[in-house]
Amino acid sequence: MDTLFLGVLLNAVDARGLLTVFPVVSFWSLRGSESEMNPYSSLSDDFYVNMNLSTEMDLPSNRETVLHFFEQMQKKYPELRNFYSRDKHDFILEEDKDQGHYRWCTVEPRRVCSGQVNPASMDGALEQHRHALEVAPYALSISPMDCESLDLLIGFDFSYRGNHNQLVVEALGVCPALERMGAMPGATIINYEPNFTFAMDDECRLQCRISVEPRTNAYQIRTGEYQEEQISVYVTARQYGSLAADRTYVETLERLNEICHDVIDNYVIDSVLQPLARTIALQ
User: Fold this and answer.
1) Domain that residue 146 falls in
2) Higher pLDDT, 279 or 179
3) C-alpha span between 190 and 127 (Å, rounded)
4) pTM score, two decimals?
5) Chain-centre distance of CA 231, in angstroms?
6) Dihedral through CA 53, CA 56, CA 57, CA 59, nearest 10?
7) CB atoms within 10 A of CB 139
């Protein structure tokens, strides 16, 4: 068994209950058979699975190379048909977003990304990322030696109108050392983003991070004018550095997927996702 190192990152500080009475239940019913195929989709308002491959060297940016990569992605996923550039350096190919679930992929100066929003199944999302990692080494001349990091991110978004920071405190609590500060008379919590990062090997090259990102700012708290925005929960498994000579990007992705599933199934659902859903439902 791998050695486990724990490192807690605190930005001000450093959460399965029944969902039958919560709004997310209606989300389940809207998804129909898709939720049955992907149990994670019933846990939040939006759910997504992203893969990011960062390289040490700049990636080719000439027209033929970039288009060849996207053509290989489009051959497998024909609905990837919206192609555009951002800032003349980032190139994006994505499906239509009208139905609320879609695939996308990008080529940036030193990063290749693949993602799927509200996927019908985890297997389908992972198959897309595998395909991108199979195509990229040949289409974009990416060597396993050139790896700066490979990420698999599984994200959950909760829509909420109000002070996100206070909601996260109520749902997840704070560490005992900071509880009294949060209860100071007249004090209003304006920044609370719990982060927790741990290593899965002795060299700390294989890591996993759980983070909560609220989106309420001080102006909204001061004026009391809140928009419905999303609180995000990210579970990210990351492999740092060049891959071993006998390892491929796809094999590394499989290991990252195992870590994310283990962390979500055994810890994050009970301790983070369902407490957030419950607290939002009670507001």
Assistant:
1) 5-282
2) 279
3) 40
4) 0.85
5) 12
6) 10
7) 21
